[in-house]
Amino acid sequence: MLGLMQDFPLIIPRLLTYAEKFHRHTEIVSRRLEGDIHRYTIGDMGRRSRQLANALARLGVEPGQVVGTIAWNGYRHMELYYALPGSQALYHTINPRLSSQQLSYVISHAEDQYIFVEAMFVPLLENVLKDIPAVKGFVVLCDEDAMPDTSLPNAHCYETLLAAESDDYQWQDFDENTAAGICYTSGTTGNPKGVVYSHRALILQAMNSAIHMEITARDSVLPIVPMFHVNGWTLPYTALVMGIKLVLPGKDLDGASVFELLDAEKVSFSAGVPTVWQMLFDHLEESGQKLPYLNKIVIGGSAAARSMLETFRDKYDVEPLHAWGMTETSSIGSTPTMTSHVACQGEEAIMRSKMTQGRGIFGAELKIVGEDGAELPMDGKSAGTLCIRGWAVSSAYLKAESNKEFTEDGWFDTGDLATLNEYGYLQLTDRAKDMIKSGGEWISSIDLENAASGHPDLAAAAVIGIHHPKWEERPLLVVVLKPGHSLDKTSVLQYLEGKVAKWWLPDDIVTADALPLGATGKVQKNELREQFKSYSFPGV
User: Is the N or C terminus of the chain more exposed, i.e. has fewer CB atoms within 10 Å?
Assistant: First the structure.
């Protein structure tokens, strides 16, 4: 017997139609590439998304075809997030910091028909134009008077395209398992891999994000995580589910620019990677300003040091939360929802729970497996490979020759090493490829980095393994100093004593002007290893 419920597909145009009706006055604020602040409402976005759908049809974009975007977090990118899947095409969000080779690869592999691009990224496409002959045309996300001179063929101005179209467009219903978007993995080893998201997965994750990150309709939300990275953690969709004010930061993610939006727009919730928050701290320390409106921040992308969490909590009265997810999980896979068991144990227990990546969200089953593939106990000690399955977890990569990461019984092998405790809290110990094997024992680069990051002279820290003739590998600590500070190696080593095992202490510490960061703020360990491939430890 089947339930007597109406068939209501979980699709993005249904979400937009709902939000236009019930949240049409809610504001969307964007910092534009030109530097000014743009304001409109969800109702305005809905109208322009229908104009864009008509423009896509006039360009000849058909259902099932893919359109690339190279854009920051802004209102025009939001319109693409809705108009493309709404018209049954797919958005392909492209990371602008890909190498030229990777850029042309993902455009060709995804079979992008058109590419919508911010004016500042036009040269990126001009440089690879000969390698992407199948692209039919390009649309520059700008006003008509800001349209750049370009060698891109069949180039259009976004606002000119929209101005020629009516907003009379009827969204249609279709299968909720229809593909909505594509995002590629970072490609640190080999070519990036394409993950194809369904409408159903994105809608469910948008609702999950609101529940598990405890976002309410009263919040003003600043998503610093890029919209070209894992669907902006689905916050562009969560905003319309909840009717929250959305503040989109554009390209300027330095501490002063982020603070300006946090303060002026009374932002209560934000999400980003540790490097962004460290830049904010540097600005606040220099200016003496506070965060009177910010209540909660979610840190993802990479683990945050305890000192960062404590600074948010103790100095700025902001609740910090860790979250974990991957391109393959549509957005978040775990969040640190506080259990009553932890809350009653006091501040130290609460902080220890915040240092984890939280608990698996509903719809994302987690398990830890050993080298033999058998599931390990949830005891907080047994470390193995993290596997996940669920309604928003990829089942295969796009056009992949091999899908070895996906098991026959439906699990995705993340490549992360982790533990789960008896209450379901996930603790990542490292990426398998970033672990350092020294004398047959493993050293976690994440734990060592987090311990070092709290030193008062250091602005950032990263750890990589360097070949050692006796121990196979030993840790090298690469640090960026705070302005006006100098490196005292003895001081750093003394600071680390007691925080990590003695044999984990780095064999050397070197300075760098900056760490190589990807577009989402993660340290690119592959680039760091390449930079120090000829390094030898002193005396070895």
Answer: N
In single-letter form, the type of residue at position 212 comes to H
User: Which entry of 69, 185, 234, 327 is annotated as an active-site residue?
Assistant: 185
Nearest 5°: phi and psi at 443?
A: -115, 130
**Token pair 């005292």 is at which residue?**
488
DSSP 314: I
pLDDT tens-digit map of 264-309: 999 999 999 888 898 999 999 999 999 999 999 999 877 778 889 9
pLDDT attached to residue 62: 98
8 Å CB contact between 506 and 461 = no
Residue 86 has a pLDDT of: 98
User: Is 437 an active-site residue?
Assistant: yes
Q: Which amino acid is at 44?
A: D
Q: Exposed (0-12), middle (13-18) or buried (19+): which is 394, by Cβ within 10 Å?
A: buried
- State residue 216's pLDDT score: 94
Distance of CA 536 to the CA centre of its chain: 34
- Predicted pLDDT of residue 340: 85
Nearest-angstrom CA–CA distance, 13 and 16: 5
From the CB of residue 526, how many other CB atoms can be counted at a distance below 10 Å? 17
Q: Which residues pair with residue 296 across a beta bridge?
A: 269, 319
Round to whole Å and give the CA distance between 151 and 294: 44
Annotated catalytic residue, options 315, 399, 433, 437: 437
Angle at 457 between CA 451 and CA 461, to 5 degrees: 45
Element (H, E) at 282: helix 274-287
Q: Please provide the DSSP assignment of 54-77 as one string.
A: HHHHHHT--TT-EEEEE--SSHHH
Residue 442 designated active-site: yes
Residue among 350, 333, 311, 341 at smallest CA distance from 392: 333
Q: Are strands 296-299 and 269-272 parallel, antiparallel or unpaired?
A: parallel
Cα–Cα dist 393/385, whole Å? 16
Q: Which uninterrupted H or E stretch holds 252?
A: none
Q: Which residue has the tokens 């916050």?
A: 235
Q: Which two tokens stand for residue 190?
A: 């080999």
| Candidates 165, 319, 328, 449; catalytic one | 328
Classify 435 in phi/psi space as left (phi over 0), alpha (psi -120 to 50) or beta.
beta
Other CB atoms within a 10 A radius of the CB of residue 125 amount to: 24
Which stretches of the chain score pLDDT less than 70? 187-190, 432, 440-441, 519-521
Residue from 93, 80, 12, 92 nearest 52 by CA: 80
Residues 6+ apart with CB under 8 A from 88: 63, 64, 172, 174, 178
Angstrom distance (rounded) from CA 37 to CA 47 = 20
